[in-house]
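Example record for the data management plan.
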Amino acid sequence: MSTSQAARPLAVAEPDVVTDWISAHAVPIPPAGGRPTAGFERLLELAAGAQIVGIGGSTYGAHEQFELTFRIIRLLVDELGFRTVATEDDWDVALPIDEYLRTGTGDLHALVGTCGAPWQVAEIYDALTWLRQWNVDHPADQVRFIGVGVINTLPPIYTAITEYVQRVAPAAAAELEQLFAVIRPVRPDHVPWFIMQVEDKERYCEYARNTLALLADLPVTDGAGNAEHELILQHARQIVAFYEHYTFHLVDDGYRDQLMADNLSWWQRHTGHRIAYWSTTAHSACAPDLFIAVPPRGVLQFAATGSHLRQAYGTGYLSVALTYNSGTVNSCWAFPPFTRRPVETAAQPQSFSEYPLARVAGPPFALDLRHAATDAAPPSVHQWLHGPAHTRIIGSIYDPSLAADEFYMTGGTLAEWFDLLIHQDTVTPTRDPQQS
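Corresponding structural encoding:
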């Protein structure tokens, strides 16, 4: 995308006409506590044929968007038999959480404290509490939990691989230890140390790839033995991804999104589960050429995870977007002291695609975009759906002193990015886990 396309977008054409059309097609979503499926009927129809449903908020830091996300996840579990919940936290961070959900082992507050900053919140704690109770009530039909991120790999992954090799192929243990002696994390600041101090980073990548090759050559048996071996290989892929990410792809160039899609697809094949993917629009959108403006970091351009999933699954991947008008959200954990803090976000400017949505009065509502193209809509509506989209995105970096339209994503259309859109008026920050 050229630098000219990074300019602030033009105003939505005939916003009143677009708003009237949205009002005529929107389905109100009542507050939680009533009939669980009320307002979500279209979502359930669209998700009925999906293997993976990506639920992307426009921010990581809004209580109401997290709450809506989990309402959707509960429906997917209860009504459609989805049996895995995935987040963008790291693969190995999620493993002990999955163990807790299946067996009750561990302390949930402590486990939530190991998550990345956006997930160290009460909303995640409450969601995991519900999932644990589901598994207690359905011991033969449990819901699993995975992380598909590649930002870190922790020592327990290396321990699991070592113990596996010592058990099934002890002759290879010495060679494995020679590799791990170099790449195994041994210091609490492993990530910043590797980024800032290690000069020969490619050596670490080579050792990680050699580890994967060593494991791939190990003898395996059919049945459970083969499944265990596949899981060990998946652990090793995360080690490779970690070192390649920080060696070659430190700037968000799409490598991480490709790997997240690969992890989701691998898990879906490995388990046969249908997956609810708890994400943000920056990653869940079916956007092969996504462009994100993130002052003061600059601009990012990559193929989003959702675009890889759409290519792999077709309409078997369902993209759900959550948008809002204004309110306070948590952000800024990318800056020292690397913790969340609340920031005010202004009402949607007329240059954003959400502007006509924000003018619809009433409760949150759902809008089916997958079938909107067949509707006899005015030209301005077709332009809104199929013209260049500019939508709000607030991740780990946000400066409320800048203009509201400085932080946005573009590089596609609403109809391309999303199958279903859920909009609400105001939001509040995600909450500390101690509030659960």
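Summary line stored alongside the record: Confidence is low (pLDDT under 50) at residues 1-5.
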